[in-house]
Amino acid sequence: MDVTSTWTDERVELLKKLWASGKSASQIAAQIGGVTRNAVIGKVHRLGLSGRGKVKSASTSRPRRAKTEAAPAQPRAQRPIKVAPISMVADAEPTDVVLPSINEVAIPPSERVALVDLRESMCRWPIGDPMTSDFGFCGGGAVAGLPYCAHHCQIAYQPVADRRRERRAS
DNA sequence: CCCTGATTCGC
DNA sequence: GCGAATCAGG
């Protein structure tokens, strides 16, 4: 089950959306989950939408570095963090409760909608495990331009709750 | 010091 | 194709 280890359409969609929204790679990675900012950036490059024309460092010459693999460099740990936000349906995050109305309360099975019954204007918020029979979607009225309903949008597109800090975008 | 994106390279 | 490592700049 590599649902959380592969770039699916939905993930790429979200990636594109967030990237186009001006979000930083780290933030996108943090939201999508399971991927580091490097993965996000790498995917972005592969998709061909690298410099969206918003990055200031455009004239930074990068004369590739000589990858001289010979010396036994000490193993360094940068970001071993890897979390799957898919589980945040039942658990927000170890951060802190900022939104008062996003307290997930487990959508009743009768509310869930099967993939075949999903419409374009319906919330495509996944509930349960994709490989389990109880898997379904929210099915609520999706916000225009977004794949989720207003309720799940708050969860999916979490605000700048604990994100490091408002970085300068100079 | 922190983070940003960009590129290269190994798997 | 994917992601870590690395670089270079702000």
Structure description:
- The chain is mostly helical and 170 residues long.
- It has two domains: 1-53; 84-160, no CATH class.
- Helix content is 22%, strand content 2%.
- The chain has a two-stranded antiparallel sheet with strand order 1-2.
- Strand 1 (126-127) and strand 2 (136-137) form a beta hairpin.
- The longest helix is centred in the first third of the chain and has 12 residues, at 9-20.
- The termini are far apart.
- It binds a DNA duplex (11 and 10 nucleotides) through residues 5-7, 24-26, 35-39, 41-46, 50-51, 55-57, 60-65, 67, 69, 76, 78-79, 164-165, 167-170.
How much is the average pLDDT? 66
Helix count? 4
E-strand count: 2
- What characterizes the major β-sheet? 2 strands, antiparallel
Strand arrangement in the largest pleated sheet: 1-2
Give the overall silhouette.
elongated
The rounded Rg comes to 19 Å
Order of helices and strands: HHHEEH
Report strand %: under 5%
Class from secondary-structure proportions: mainly alpha
Determine the N-to-C terminus distance. Answer: 41 Å
Task: Extract low-pLDDT stretches.
Answer: 77-103
Percent of residues in helical segments?
Answer: 10-25%
What oligomeric state is this? single chain
Q: Structurally, how many domains make up the residues?
A: 2
